[in-house]
Please model this.
Amino acid sequence: GDCLFVSDSIKLENGAPTHLRPELMADNLNMDVHDITKRLREEVIPLMADRISNNPGSFPNNATLVEALRKKGINLRYLGTVRLLVSSSSIKRTLMCEMIT
Model:
């Protein structure tokens, strides 16, 4: 026929493909954000806190520490979480200073 693409797997609702409906796209996006945030809080931040705790000399100042966090995808809003997980008192002070400024 004249159709270039025929598929029985695309579900339609009111004539539109259901996977393109804005509310379903928003639900999928919200799930993605939820999954990413969960991974960040449960895996990425604890691993980075361990790295920082094991090598506090590698982060001699605020800028070095903040840059390392950003490179790992850790937003500065999580500084408090990182601070709770690190064991180095000097890093805890550095993080507190960064949180205040």
Notes: The first strand starts at residue 12 and ends at 13. The beta strands are 12-13, 16-17. Helices lie at 22-54, 62-71, 79-85, 89-100.
